[in-house]
Fold these 2 entries.
Entry 1:
Amino acid sequence: MKKIVTWVGISLGILIILIGALVGGMHLLGRSRLAQAPAVIVQAIDLPSDQAALNRGAHIANAISLCTDCHGQSLEGAVFMDEPPIGRVIAPNLTGGQGGIGGAYTDEDWIRAIRHGVGGDGRTLAIMPSNAFAHLSDNDLGALVAYLKSVPPVDNELPDREIIFPGTIFMGVLGYGELPVSLIDHNTVQTVNGPAPGDAAALGEYLSHIGGCTECHGAQLAGRVEENGPPPGPNLTTAGELGNWNEADFINTLRTGTTPEGKNLDPEMMPWPWFATMSDEELQALWLYLQSLPPRNLGDNG
């Protein structure tokens, strides 16, 4: 009997050691992947300097791609998250002020971060939705970078990013395939053309990509179904609520945050105050594109 107990104890000890080694190895792998993203080739683009282009860059940052939603109204940066089990994640200060990256980033660094999801220091940008921004046309990306380089400096020293265990495993191993850097085809986004002038539906599709609509509403915009709680993004095809709306309803909803049914949209879930500043042409194009989508059942994004 003593021998059996002894062998059971030894076996459990070996098992614990093996599990510990496996978990430790996953932690180190995840930390390494987050600290050093895969090398990507960056294609240089022309940066404009005229006021019209800077205005376009500001419009993208504030109304469409929502840079100010995470980085602050003055792009001064903020602590995005600081709690277990992930740790501290930072939306950095994008200006040239104290604590900002604007003064240190080269044009190549800006492009690598926005289009490829790789920081200027080579890190994987874990929460930056670069898989959406990778769709930015060369002209719009150039305008955005030019604008970001022109914003007034803001002094705001932020702590360093610190992804802790087990966040290193969640983000660097188990969820690594879902991080933007893993979702981007880095070769095909070297050069991106925008929608053809006058093609409203194509403009709407383009806006849905660079505005990150699929992040919450699913790849086919049919909404996302969560096991616990309501879907974070409803079905935007005609099989959903939008099937009962008209263009005026859609535009008014994004302008006011109130649906035709009287529901008030939560700006934390649906950032309508930013989208409200899109132009009538943009909202009309987005509506036209959504109306062109085949009807799908909620959550059917295959």
Note: The radius of gyration is 22 Å.
Entry 2:
Amino acid sequence: MSITQNILVIDDEPQIRRLLKLGLEGSDFKVTEAENAKQGIMEVVNSRPSLILLDLGLPDEDGLTVIKKLREFSDVPVIILSVRNSERDIITALDNGADDYITKPFNTGELLARIRVALRHTQPDQKTSIFTNGNIMIDFSGHIVKKSNEEIKLTSTEYSLLALFMKNAGKVLTHQYILKEVWGKPYSDDTQYLRVYIAQLRKKFEIDPQNPKIFTTESGVGYRMILQE
């Protein structure tokens, strides 16, 4: 990872910023710090970070409000680091533009993996229409899906759902976001509808659909397609 990638940490706890700085610089990231919302937004403008780690409990403004303000002028990836772990807070953060959500205390290895995923999505390969994740391949130009080089037949809805996951592999997607993107806004609350199609994808791509390792459930929030080796 290039050291030119700058991670902005917006957190009012000095010990958390110190811990993150040590871990991130040890993985060849540059780190910029901000201790409140106002300073954080200024740093986004001035230092143009590659990614933001944002605490929700800031002293001057709630982190959810910060996300909304950031999304008015920037699409920089935002990963929430917070002690708040309610489904409502997580869903609200993701639906307002956060890319991922990790609760404190966190595992540094997992955080670094989530950072790599978020950064990868900011640098898509525009020269190819083929996306792969492990043994799953989707060719958007040919509308072809393969698993271990064997073509898999999907319905149009299953294809649209898989395409959304492949383009966002590694990211948690909320129920509402998936339903809106695949079925449209009128279906944005029909989570039972979504559950049926997730089960269909698991049958076609998981070794053990009852113990999914590819399409995992983020309890109460949504689903994540795990990045495969």
Note: The mean pLDDT is 89.
